[in-house]
Specification:
The complex is a heterodimer of chains A (44) and B (545). With 44 residues, chain A is mainly alpha-helical. Chain A contains 1 helix and no strands. Chain A has one domain. The longest helix of chain A has 26 residues. Chain A is rod-shaped. Chain B has 545 residues and is an all-alpha fold. Chain B has 2 domains: 459 residues, Up-down Bundle (Sodium/glucose cotransporter); 64 residues. Classes of the chains: A mainly alpha (44), B mainly alpha (545). The interface between A and B is medium-sized, with 27 and 40 residues.
Chain lengths: 44, 545
């Protein structure tokens, strides 16, 4: 089957690898924020 | 429910269905009916992927989970963004370029017909069972809350789903999910605001968070590793990533969503949108549960939230004693909460002791009940405390969320039945119109199957457990064979075929003979498929040499 479907750049950040990195950075920040949230409100 | 709520509920159903059908006009080819002619933008696919995965069960039961067990369930979703990145980088371009209707069609391009048939059959069994459950579970809850016979709710939802999916196809389902998800997220935010505003005037938002924390409800991250613990950081990141890889990469009900994209980039964006939005959304839903918990610290909740089971328990001889203990524990907890808010020494200990007594009284009542009540907590709050009109809207979106999820599953079942079984093995050379009619007939068949299966459901707790078990028993095998297809170029069809069988056997053995929790089944199953596939392939090549 001919490979006619071309890839295209993302609408922001220029390259897909940068968008993937952004997603993973958000995940790390969320987990870290949730960890701080858990520790702050943990029963004492 | 008040008359205005019924008006809102029925109006929302009519509006949403009409909107979906209007957007789907012109779906008169197989490509249009099953893949929306590959015209969908990323935001519609993204919201539809979210709606299909969430379904009504998430919105009914997740706040209840936050209320009972705290927020640790959010960790299940920690692996999802990782999986979405992997799928966007690998699977999305492969499926688009292979020009397939189903994920399993690709397996024949890569391996052979028997591997495609085996994996299609696994999907039909797994998804066929869960399509019925997706209708039954919210049907049971809504029937108890609205005091309607369960069979009515299941049959009404089933018939609407069949008509909607048969006439509108995937375009109607996807477009209807856009306002659906928007309204359901708005309704959840509104519920959170109302829960906080209904707190006594002297209790601030920070006080509420402090009280929820003191009761151990804000436990969003558990760093301690334990194989037998369902929800911790490690099972969430590793097990959750495997689960999401399997679900979004190999389950046709999800793959079909992003195959409707007008380009590889649009499909990628739909997955990455979910990668960024899903974890905060689940956090929000669980946090609503924690805030509803705090609300009920000051406003006495029923001993059990399940109205039918509460009526049953009230007939029991033990009930007066349990109720007395419950009332006493509630009064002590409320007094301790005020002291804790004002930072009086020893208040935290008193609060937790009262909470423990209250939980013990509830546990005794639950022992007399046939069913748990976690899934009734949020709807009890909605029915009792949200304003008229909003109650109707929340119930309407739960109805339509159940229908949306079920419609997506039925559509994918029809697609696999027609493309991977009927067109491939039974009638390979018919016209496009013939396959369009066959797709509609298959939709009616699977819709009817799901509805009939749903009407046999009677125990919500058992159904939820069944959903989890059915999915986790099969996804590992599916994920393993797709990993072999994408990344192990030397592995042939026979090695992959027996790899899947070995992987499934390993999962069933793990489930039967160990206490390892379900999130790990996908990891174990997929690794066995990959290992057996690679070993058999090596043996085959050695023998040939």
């Amino acid at each position: 089957m001919p490979d006619e479907i071309k890839d295209e750049p993302p609408p922001f950040l220029g390259r897909w690898t940068r968008v993937y990195t952004l997603v993973l950075i958000e995940l790390v920040l969320l987990i870290f924020a949730f960890y701080l949230f858990t520790v702050h409100f943990a029963p004492r | 429910m008040k008359p205005l709520d019924w008006v809102v509920l029925i109006s929302w159903l009519v509006l949403l269905i009409s909107y979906g059908l209007w957007r789907s006009r012109g779906s008169n080819t197989v490509n249009q009916f099953l893949l929306a002619g590959k015209t969908m933008p990323w935001y519609a696919m993204g919201l539809s992927i979210m709606a299909t995965q969430a379904g009504a069960i998430t919105f009914i039961s997740t706040p209840g989970q936050g209320y009972v067990d705290g927020m640790r369930f959010v960790q299940v979703y920690f692996g999802l963004p990782i999986a979405m990145v992997i799928l966007s980088a690998t699977v999305v371009p492969i499926f688009h370029r292979a020009r397939v209707y189903t994920a399993y069609e690709y397996l024949e391009q890569r391996f052979d017909a028997k591997t495609r048939a085996l994996v299609s059959a696994i999907f039909l069994i797994e998804r066929g069972l869960s399509a019925g459950i997706a209708l039954a579970a919210p049907g049971i809850v809504l029937s108890a809350i609205l005091h309607l016979p369960f069979a009515w709710t299941a049959i009404i939802m089933g018939c609407v789903v069949i008509l909607f999916t048969t006439f509108g196809g995937i375009k109607a389902i996807t477009w209807a999910d856009v306002p659906q998800m928007t309204v359901i997220l708005s309704a959840l935010v509104l519920a959170l605001i109302i829960a906080i505003r209904l707190l006594p005037p002297e209790v601030s938002f920070l006080d509420a968070a402090k009280l929820a924390g003191a009761a151990g409800k804000l436990n969003a991250v558990v760093t301690q590793f334990d194989w037998k613990d369902r929800y911790n950081l490690w099972s969430g990141v590793i097990g959750g990533a495997f689960l999401a890889l399997a679900y979004f990469g190999t389950d046709q009900s999800q793959v079909q969503r992003y195959l409707t994209g007008k380009s590889i980039g649009q499909s990628r964006l739909s997955l990455l949108f979910n990668a960024m939005a899903k974890v905060p959304m689940q956090f929000l839903i669980l946090f609503i549960g924690a805030m509803v918990f705090v609300f009920f610290v000051f406003d006495k909740p029923p001993l059990l939230f399940h109205p039918v089971e509460l009526a049953r328990v009230k007939q029991s001889a033990q009930y007066p004693g349990i109720e007395q203990r419950y009332n006493s524990a509630f009064d002590r907890r409320r007094a301790a909460a005020i002291d804790l808010k004002d930072s009086r020494p020893g208040a935290a200990q008193d609060f937790r002791a009262a909470q423990k007594d209250l939980d013990a009284a509830r546990a005794d009542a639950l022992k007399l009940s046939k069913e748990g009540d976690t899934n009734y907590i949020f709807l009890t709050f909605v029915m009792r405390y949200l304003p008229t009109g909003i109650v109707g809207l929340v119930l309407a979106v739960i109805f339509t969320a159940a229908m949306s999820s079920s419609a997506g599953e039925i559509n994918s079942l029809a697609t696999v039945t027609v493309i991977d079984i009927y067109r491939r093995h039974l009638r390979p050379d018919e016209s496009d119109h013939h396959y369009l009619v066959a797709s509609r007939v298959a939709t009616v068949f699977w819709g009817g199957f799901a509805t009939i299966f749903a009407t046999f459901g009677s125990n919500f707790g058992a159904l939820i457990e069944a959903v989890n078990q059915v999915g986790s028993l099969f996804y590992g095998g599916l994920l393993g064979v797709f990993v072999l297809a994408f990344f192990a170029k030397k592995v042939g069809g026979t090695a992959a075929f027996y790899g899947v069988i070995a992987g499934e056997l390993a999962i069933f053995a793990t489930a039967r003979f160990t206490s390892i929790k379900f999130l790990w089944y996908n990891v174990i199953g997929s690794l066995v498929v990959i290992a057996v596939g690679l070993i058999l392939s090596k043996i085959e090549r050695t023998r040939r040499a």
